[in-house]
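User: These chains co-purify. Model them together.
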Amino acid sequence: MGSTRPTVIGVDNSPSMKKLLERSTKDLDIDLTVFTSAEEAWPYLQANTPNLIIVSILLPDKNGLSLLRDLRQLPAHRETQAIIVSSKDYAQDRMVAKDLGVLEFIPKPMSLQTITDVVVKYTHASLKSDSK
Amino acid sequence: MSNAQLRFWGVRGSYAAPFSSHLGVGGNTSCVEIRVDDHLLICDAGTGIIPLGNKLMQQDQIREIFVILTHYHWDHVCGLPFFVPAFMPDWKIDFFGPGDGPELIEEHISAQMQAPYFPVGTETWLAETNYLEPQSDGFQCGPMKISFSNVHHPGITFGYKIEVNGKTIVYASDNECKFIEKSIKRRTDEFTEEEHELIEEMVHEEHQSELNLFKDADILIHDAQYTPDDYEKKHGWGHSCYVDAIDTAIDANVKELYLFHHDPNYDDVAMEAIQKHSNEIIKEKGSSLVCHIAKEGMTIDL
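Assistant: Joint model of the two components:
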């Protein structure tokens, strides 16, 4: 039997955001992988459908919303759950994100608990056995 | 060495301000021409591109134009329906701007020229028009090397770096610098000590990433739409306070800063006060930065 743990993917080039994602989910029984660019994430996303994607807007290569638009063209990703975390917090970006089916738009900076809560909400992840 | 010049044709943000009280600085919206010999690059197509187009019709050396757009907010594209070279058969115009490919760029540019908002569409343009695919290593316009980066403004917005004659020019007409730093100051009580450490790192990273675009620029043309008082009310609108633009330029070791995208509510007297305060800030900081108010008609030899 393969692992049934939820898979969560982060796409963000910020080392501090990577730390924040790791620390906020350290007690959750999930597989977390963080990619630092759209280009780095793309081969993985073409081959896999994670339970949740957490994407930043300002990436070094491509805009995170463009990445999501490309992703929605792939049949496997039409309904993949996606969340935006962004240092940009403008109504225009929120509207585009909504049109792309983004579930939550979280402006940076956010608390650790904010990330823990959304990951649990959308993946139903349970606590690791040694954290109970 | 090529014969190279930069000229400001439109310096206002938001909307044109053709008021007699504003004409010392100028009333047209964003448009900057960079000409190297017979190669012509136009940064943004606000109302400033209209008089530029009329001027181009009076010469016959140049028939090819490269237009780079930071984004498609109307103050950056609203001159295109009145840009005469686009309606002439012997001209060639290449367009580039944010978008996931040439079709989207064309769609964004064409959208404003549709009924009932405008009587004719871009299909009436007789010039050969091309919408360019984004290139990760940038573009070349004659001897000008052009690259682009995402900046801080609603929607996908680019800042451009143009290298010519050994000089680096950065055009960032719309960019809210220090956004996250200011956001945190407003929310500091929400976070724990551990979170504050991470957030400080985040602010540092954001600042560094902002500086990377501007670093060592000979000329930085940057959004400076608001005074500190107005920025307090308009934080999160996607534009910078001129004080933050100056601080960022100093940190990035910029040589000359041109404050740009002026608020249409600021008349010539208000703009003079901004120039005076800018000089005081730079003097207090002991910086060698030279700061100008970008004015319509101002020309820089490159």
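The interface with chain A takes residues 98, 100, 136, 150, 152-156, 179-180, 183-184, 187, 190-192, 194-195, 198-199, 201-202, 205-206, 209, 236, 238 of chain B (CB under 8 Å).
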